[in-house]
Amino acid sequence: MVDITFYQRMDDKPSRPREWISRFVLGMAGETLFLMALGSATRVMNAGLACPDWPLCYGALVPQKQMNLQVFLEWFHRLTASSMGLFAIALVGFCWWYRRNLPKWAPWISLLVLFLVVFQGILGAFTVTELLRFDIVTAHLGTALLFFMTLLSMGVALQPYQGTGTAGKLHLVAAIAAICVYIQSILGALVGSQWALHQCLSDSTLCGVMHSHLAGVIPATLTTLTLTVWAWRTPALHPSLRRLANFAGSLLVLQIALGVATFKLRLQVEPLTIAHQSIGAGLLGVLVTFAVLAFRDVASPATVILPTADSPIDSVSMSPAIAHPADGHPA
Ligand code: HEM
Fold first, then answer.
1. 262 touches ligand 1 (CB under 6 Å)
2. CA angle 164–166–326, rounded 5-degree value
3. Which of 10, 104, 221, 308 has an alpha carbon 20 to 30 Å from 281's alpha carbon atom?
4. For the chain, where are the alpha helices, taking DSSP H only?
5. Model-level pTM?
6. Which residue, judged by its Cα, is nearest atom 32 of ligand 1?
7. Closest Cα to atom 33, ligand 1: which residue?
8. Does ligand 1 have an atom closer than 6 angstroms to the CB of 48?
């Protein structure tokens, strides 16, 4: 009987440094998600200027005398962000040192990660010195999301993955959905940084900003749901891709529910607003992860192991006919 097994291409073979650098990068992505939630908490608790100077807080590394919840949030946000800067420097060092074990693009992406973290630090400084100017606060969230997406893409691209070659155009659908959710997040940041909901409800100003965020729900929803449904209807899709597509659909529903609750309760419940920001970033992360894995699925089709006369197994490229068995599952 023919033994059909899915194998990675040779250049996808995991190596030790590649594996732990991937885990390190994904750990940084997880810390970024936490940092963004902390940033959101800092904003909704009106703690953005709780440390009036930068980079120190009240001229000290640890402002013991002035410490209260607001100072703690802003100070802890800065502390976590500084650790991210150190991790980014370490990542560049690791990637260049082990460059022979990594794909050619990896050291260059590590430099992009370092550039983004430095740029983010400069924006963070301006956020304080320019007294929370809305465009700078928005750019700060926009860069944080770019940084998060870069880390996730790099970490996922370095993970061992055995494609099934069945994802078709799903990577494009996921990429378009990710762009829509990214734009929607920037619109949300514009609402948050200008307190547009309050302004619109109290004196009918900035309603355009609020309405643009409400309208932005449509493309973000349509593209994410297209991905989920398309994934359901794709036979023999890799189980990880199937799970990610379902997860994206669920996060979208949760995100819309949180948005409606934030809106109806007029930002009275801070944890809801923080959750709205965090789930939005989580949804973006799932879409980016899907796009990268689906791209790898297409770029490195699976191989089939066939027994031959002189060697028990030999590998040949898998034909689409085998990749799409009628029962909808890989053989
Ligand atoms: C895919 C759907 C959505 C995404 C990705 C999204 C994303 C975001 C993001 C990233 C923020 C900025 C949060 C912050 O700066 O802390 C935000 C703010 C906001 N969003 Fe959404 N949102 C979505 C749907 C909705 C919906 C359906 C509503 C209401 C009907 C809504 C209402 C709000 C409000 C009121 C704010 C301002 C919160 C504040 O002032 O702190 N969002 N959104």
1. yes
2. 100
3. 104
4. 16-44, 69-97, 105-129, 134-158, 170-193, 196-203, 207-215, 217-232, 239-264, 270-299, 320-323
5. 0.88
6. 259
7. 259
8. no
